[in-house]
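INTERNAL AUDIT FORM
Audit reference: QA-55
Scope: verify that the stored structure record matches its stored sequence.
Auditor: D.O.
Record contents follow.
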Amino acid sequence: MSWIQDNKFAAMLGGGTLLGAIVLIYVGLSYRGHYAKNLESYLSDWEEVKEFEAIPLYPSLANRAGKTKALNDYRASIGGLQKAFDKFRPKELKNITPQGFTDHAKTAHEEVIKAFEKVDTKLPEAFFLGFETYTAALAREDATGLLDYQLGAVKELMLTLAKAAPSQLQNVYRPKFPEEDGEKWEAGPNDAARALPLELTFKGSERSLREFLTAIGKSTDFFFVVSNLRIMNEKPTTPPRLADAKFEAAPIAPKNAPDPFSGAADFVSPPGAPVAPAPATPPAKSPEPPPATPPSAFLEIPMGAVMAQGPGGIPMAVPPGAPAGARPNVKPAKPAAPPPPAPATKPTAKPARTPGLAPAPAETPDEPVQATPAAPPVPSAPPVDSSRILIRVLGGEELQVFLHIDVLEFLPVKALPEVPK
C-alpha cells in the first residue's frame, strides 16, 4: 500500500489502463457477432445486386433511356391507331324528338323497299329494318340519339344487300340495348367501342353473298364486324352431285375460221424470205405394183473401181489402174420413162436410181415460187372465270345465309398517360 501511496499517479494510470482494456475487450467481444452478421448481410446483398445488374432490364441510365423511348414509340402507335378509327367514331350522338326518329325510320324504310323491289327480292311480311317495335309506339327521347345512329348503319346494310340482289330476305332481328328500356349502359375500363348487334337471314346465290361481304368491308361511314356466319344450301341432307355443277365453257370457233397457225412461216422465216407453196394433195389411187427395172438400168462395177462424176453429174465407176482424168469405161443406164403426170402437180423427170450409187440431185423448178399471204389472226377466246368455286360445287342451288353483324360505336378517345422523362 505504501507504493500506491507513494506512486499515486502511476497507480491511477495503471488502473485506468487496465479498466480501459477490460472495457475494450468486452466491447470487442460483444460487437464481433454484430460485425459477422452485418458482413454476411452485406455479401448477400452484393451478390443479389450482381444478379440484378446482369438482367436486360436493370434500372441503369442506359436502360432507362431505352425504356423511355419504347414507351414513347408505343404511345405514338396508339395515337396513330386512334386517328385511323376517327372516321368511324361519331362526333356526338344528339337526342332528337321521338317523332323525328319515327320519320327518319319511315324514310329509310321506303328507300330500302324500293331498292329491294328493283331487284325482285322477296321481303318478310312484317319488315321495318329491325325497328318493328316503333311502328306502333314512340321511342324514348333519351335513346333517340343512339337509335338514329344504328338506323343509319342498318339502312346502309340493307341497301348494300339490295345491290347484291338476293332472292329472298327472310329475317332481320335487332336486339334492344339498355337505353331503350330506360336503363344505363356502362363501358368497361378497357372498352374502346360498343357493339350494336344485328342478325340477318337471307337466301341467294354465292355471288350475292360474296358481293355483300366485300361491300360491307369497304364501308367508310360505319365499322361492321361479322362475328358469326353460317351457310347452308337448299338440300342440307343431300350432297351436291357432279351433274349439278355448272362449268363455264369457252366459246367454240366457227368451222370456216382461218387456221390460227397459218402465219407460223412468217414467224419462223426471216423477213422477206419466200415461202414455199403448200403441196397439193394428190387424189387417192389404188396401190399398183412397182414396174420391173430393165436390165440395162444396172451397171457392172469391177472390183476396186473408183467412183467418178460422169456427164450430167451422174456418178460413174472408173476401173482400177486407169490414168487420171480417164473417162469411165462403163455404159450409162438408160433413163427410165417418166411417170405419168399427176393432177395438180408439175411432172418432173427423175433419173433412175442405180443400186450402190448415190441418187442424182433433184432438178430445180424454173417457175418462181409464189408467197402465200398470211391469214388474219384469230381473236383469242375470253378467259373462263375459274374463281367461282362455290357455284361450281353447288351448281344451281341457292344458299341460305345467317349473319350476326356488330356495328361498332367507337367511344370517345381517352387521354394517354404521359411518359416520365
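Auditor finding: record pair retrieved intact. The longest strand covers residues 193-204.
Action required: none
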